[in-house]
Amino acid sequence: MTNTIYIHQPEKSVSFTRLPNFLFEAPTFTPLSNEAKVLYAFILRRMELSRKNGWADEYGRIYLYYPICEVVGLLHCGRQKAVNTLRELQYAGLVEIQKQGCGKPNRIYPKSYEAVPNTDFKKSRSGTPED
User: Fold this and answer.
1) Could you tell me which of 111, 116, 92 has the C-alpha nearest to residue 47?
2) Where do the DSSP E strands lie in 1-131?
3) pLDDT lower than 70: segments of the chain
4) How far apart are CA 63 and CA 40, in angstroms?
5) Residue 75 is inside which H or E element, if any?
6) Which pLDDT score, from 0 to 100, does residue 119 have?
7) For the packed helices 68-75 and 34-52, what is the interaxial angle rounded to 10 degrees?
8) Alpha-carbon span 121 to 124, nearest angstrom
9) Distance of CA 63 to the CA centre of its chain
10) Strands lying side by side in the sheet with 107-110
């Protein structure tokens, strides 16, 4: 008999990242790689921290920094794969990337799924992401 440990109560030290269902259910996002979907979830998580810290531009848009080296560490991939994954999110309309130059990291502006053109949640099983 093996020693199996069952969790009866949630552990307090475990943190979770929410992965939005619409990334898997809306036809618009079907072509996105799973890496891009996971990265978007982590960007949304980091966005909450940026909001708490008051990181907003002159138009009130929340931004964050996610250096490529951190994306490489998160996804356990090479530098080019990390760059391509961020570009995937940009082309899908889920983030806007603004270069700053002079060795400064790019600003990433997360966008709402509602801002993405041709997103039809009526075709997905659960309707809107809030369901």
Assistant:
1) 111
2) 64-65, 95-98, 107-110
3) 1-2, 5-13, 115, 117-131
4) 13
5) helix 68-75
6) 54
7) 130
8) 5
9) 13
10) 64-65, 107-110, 95-98
**Three-class SS state of 31:** coil
Distance CA 96, CA 8 (A): 42
Q: Which one, of 85, 81, 110, lies nearest residue 96 by Cα?
A: 110
What number of residues does the chain have?
131
Structure tokens at 94: 């889920």
pLDDT of residue 73: 97
Over its C-alpha atoms, the chain yields an Rg (Å, rounded) of 17
Sign of the torsion angle spanned by Cα atoms 88, 89, 90, 94: positive
Which residue has tokens 């990181």? 55
Q: Which residues, in sequence order, are CB contacts of 67 under 8 Å at separation 6+? A: 105
| pLDDT tens per residue across span 28-48 | 898 999 999 999 999 999 999
Whose tokens are 């799924």? That residue is 113
